[in-house]
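Limitations
The C-alpha cells in this dataset are predictions for the assembled complex, not deposited experimental models. Users should treat interface geometry with appropriate caution, especially where small molecules or nucleic acid strands are included. An illustrative entry is reproduced here so readers can see what is and is not provided.
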Amino acid sequence: MDDGPSTAGQQRPPLRADAQRSVDALLAAAAEVFAESGVDAPVRKITAKAGVGAGTFYRHFPQRSDLISAVFRREVDACAAAAPALTAQYPPLDALTRWLERFAGFIATKRGLSAALHSGDPVYDSLPCYFQQNFEPVLADLLERAAQAGAIRSDADPWDLLRAIGNLAVPLEDGDDHTQRMISLLVDGLRYGAGAGAQPS
Amino acid sequence: MDDGPSTAGQQRPPLRADAQRSVDALLAAAAEVFAESGVDAPVRKITAKAGVGAGTFYRHFPQRSDLISAVFRREVDACAAAAPALTAQYPPLDALTRWLERFAGFIATKRGLSAALHSGDPVYDSLPCYFQQNFEPVLADLLERAAQAGAIRSDADPWDLLRAIGNLAVPLEDGDDHTQRMISLLVDGLRYGAGAGAQPS
DNA sequence: GCACGATACGGAACATTGTTCCGCTTAGCA
DNA sequence: TGCTAAGCGGAACAATGTTCCGTATCGTGC
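Predicted assembly:
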C-alpha cells in the first residue's frame, strides 16, 4: 500500500533495488525496536539491526515521524491483511477470535505511540483515520460472518470493539494472559446473544 | 501547597535555606523555559536561567517528570489563587472575565504538556485531577457571584467552560487576540441569559 | 562568635543520541 | 564493458542528559 517513506511525495522516481532493500530492512528493524523500546528508541539501535549506516537512515527518513508513520501503516496493513487467511482457514467464530488476538498483539507493540500522536506533528494527523478505515471494515466482516453462522449476536459495533480491545491491550506489561482472557470474555459476551443455544466457554 | 519536588516523600527533613532557594529558582526558570520552548527544553537552558549547576538540578529533580509535575502544580496554584484578589477588586462580571483571561494565559504556556501527559509515566496520573480539583471550584465561585449579580445566566457548567477555554487557548501561536476574542464571546454568551436586560458588548 | 559536621553547590567530565558529510560502492543502462 | 547517477557506510561533529567530586555554605552546639 505504501512503498516508501514519504506519503506526500508527488512523483518520485522508482527506488533503486538496493535502496528498496534498505527501506524494507529499516522498516522491519524499526518495527521490532519500537516494539521493545518504544518509538523513542535511538536511531543507532535501528540502523544496527537493519545493518545499514546512519546516512542511509536519514536519506530515507529525514524526520523520525516519517519512520513512525510508515511503520504504523505497514503494521496496520499487515494486521488487516491477516483476516482473509483466517476467514478461509477457520470457522467464523474461531477466525474472529484469532484475529482479535492478532489485533491485540498489534496494539501491544505501540508503546509511546500515543504520546507521539499527541505531539502536534501534522504527519500523525492521518494515522487515527488510517487505523479506523482499515480495521473497521475488516472486523465488521468477521463479525458479520460469525453472526450469520449463528455464533454471535448481530448487534455488535466493530468500532466499539476495536477501541475496547485497544484499551485492554494498552499495558503490554507482564504476560499477555490478561489481554487474552479479556478478549475471550468479550467474545463470550458476543456469543451470549446468539440465536442458537450458545453457552459460555 | 507543595514545598518540594517529590510529592511522594514520606517525611523528608526540611530543606536547607540555600536548597530552598535553588528549588525556587529552578521552578521559576523552568516555568519560563517551558513556556517558550515546551517541556522538552534542554536542562542547560533551565539551569542557566536559574543560575545553578547541573548537579543541583539533578539533586532536586532526578526525573524530568518531577520537574514538570512540580511546575504544573505551582502554576495551577498561582492561577487559582489569583481569583480572590480579582473578586475583591472588580465587579463580578469583570472578575470573571479577567480570571478567564488569566486562565487562558496559563493554558498557553502548556506546549508539549499534552504529549507528556500521554507518555504513560504514572507521575502524571494525578495532574488532570489536580487541574480539575483546583480550577472547578474557583470558576464555580466566580460564576455564581456573577449570576447572583444578575450579570450572567445561572446555568453555566464550570467544567464545560474550563475545557472550552482550554481548547481555545491551546494554539499559543500568533497573538492571543484570537483567544481573547473567543473568551469575550463566551462571556457574552453567558450574559445573554441573565435576568436583567443585559445586552451584548 | 566560633568550630564542626552535614548538606548542598558548581561545573567539568563523561555518556548517549541526533545529524551531517564525503569518499567509496553499486545498480541501471547503453 | 564502461559510464554515470544514485546510494551506501561510518567517522566526525553537535547537542543534550547525567554523574562525580572538590569546594562552599548552612545549621547547630558550645
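Some entries come with short summary sentences. For this one: Residues 63-192 of chain B form a domain with the Tetracycline Repressor; domain 2 fold (CATH 1.10.357.10).
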